[in-house]
Amino acid sequence: MPRRHLHITGTDGAALRAALRDLRTKLGVPRQFPAEVLAEAERAARGPRLPEYDATELPLFTIDPPASVDLDQAMHLARRPGGGYRVHYAIADVAAFVTPGGPLDAEAHRRVTTLYFPDERVPLHPAPLSEGAASLLPDRTRPALLWRLDLDPDGRAEAVDVRRALVRSRAKLDYDGVQKAIDTGTAEEPLALLKDIGRLREALERERGGISLNVPEQEIVGHDGGYRLGYRAPLPADGWNAQISLMTGMAAADLMLAAGTGILRTLPTAPDGAVGRLRRAAKALRIDWPHHVPYAELVRSLDPHRPAHAAFLQECTSLLRGAGYTVFTGGQTPDPAVHAAVAAPYTHCTAPLRRLVDRYTGELCVAAAAGAGTPEWVLSALAALPREMTEGTRLANTAERESVDLVEAALLQDRVGEAFEATVIDVRDAEPLVGTVQLADPAVVGRVESAGPALPLGERVRVRLTHADPGTAKVLFALA
After folding, report:
1. pLDDT surpassing 60 at residue 227
2. What average pLDDT does this structure show over 453-480?
3. DSSP characters for 83-135?
4. For residue 213, which of 348, 313, 345 has the smallest C-alpha distance?
């Protein structure tokens, strides 16, 4: 899925910017890169380890938010002469620039993941790499891990290969433009096939019982020299693009499992109690969920633009808690081995500019595809990666959540006492007088308390703002 557009512009947000600086200090967010790390990055940008295989004739394209410059993936889609499809998916080769055990490598292990704040991005790698020499920017020759996935006419992978290659993207596209080009029939075949392949992969996801949640996202976007909050429901193109990445992550997991060494992104099956809670939420939201209808099928039938459906989709995210990373070596069978939402083995491998583990899974897959041994620098890092990734992901989630809280409080601090139209999107099981509301305008999601009766899950209500303090990043409502 696309990253949130956490972005503010202009001078109106001076107080908010100060609060965000304080937030980064509180969270212990790394600031400037040490001098030795920058020096190594600049040297690596000038002289990366380049592969012999030249695939620059492939007219690849990228799909990212318009302002993005850290471009991890580029693709080319084609029909196979005998039927089916061929997907080329290039992933930035960060290992071509990072020397194991060096200052740049150590700093990446300290940072773990890129962090996104409304006023700035705190990158995993220095800008000479993440925004320059390693990024798959258009009309630049770059080292990459080039995946080739041959699919049958139903979209199933028949053959998979990955190798190091020189690549050259031809175009930097964004989601809105891609959707418009496909909808109007003006997309050339390599782009138009994104819809065909994406839909086939979505059908296979349904078949295996997997699920992708189309939860509307709360966004901070620049507006008239200042900022505003909005909601964004994913476009179909978002989902089709995500299916290409998902397919590659599944192929990578299969390669590592066959080789006997790797690291998987795993999620245990939700306990019965969690599913039972969702059934109660569906009933409260007046969503018909017959007992013979699987959870995944129900979710795919929902419209995220409808308030009750959006509220239920938000509730569904509770089933995604508990995701982690599972390392396996020596041909052992990993436990767990499956990501419950994917309904198959899966790994993270398509965002090495922004996520540490992807550099390692990419290296494992290149070795597995070539029938070669795993490099020692990869093996020696595997045991610590799950803990590092868990801590880094927790920090990234906290930074995003608290950034949105700050903007909400700043936006509403002069409106305490006002009433707003809202929808109750969550009610605590043990405290039915406490929950969460989603305002229609502005796009705020906040805590609500009722003096009685119990909060009506999924219902439209009128709430009054009782507290909005940017200093504490807290917004609180009461039933009006």
Report:
1. yes
2. 87
3. SSEEEEEEEE-GGGTPPTTSHHHHHHHHH-B-EE-SS-EE-SS-HHIIIIITS
4. 313
pLDDT at residue 426 greater than cutoff 60: yes
The pair phi, psi for residue 464, each rounded to 5°, is -115, 135
Rounded to an integer, what distance in angstroms lies between the CA atom of residue 342 and that of residue 19?
38
Q: Are 349 and 252 in contact (CB under 8 A)?
A: yes
Using CA atoms, how far residue 443 sits from 4, 116, 193, 396, 435, in Å, is 14, 19, 34, 22, 17
| pTM confidence score | 0.88
Residues in the chain, how many? 480
Cα R_g (the chain), whole angstroms: 23
Residues 6+ away with beta carbon under 8 Å from 398: 27
What type of residue sits at position 269? T
The SS3 call for residue 21 is: helix
pLDDT tens-digit readout, 208-218: 989 888 777 76
pLDDT in tens, 321-344: 789 999 999 888 888 899 999 999
Helices (H), 260-375: 272-284, 295-300, 307-316, 356-370
**What's the rounded Cα separation, in Å, for the pair 359 and 58?**
23
| Average of per-residue pLDDT values in the chain | 90
pLDDT tens-digit map of 174-196: 999 999 999 999 999 999 999 99
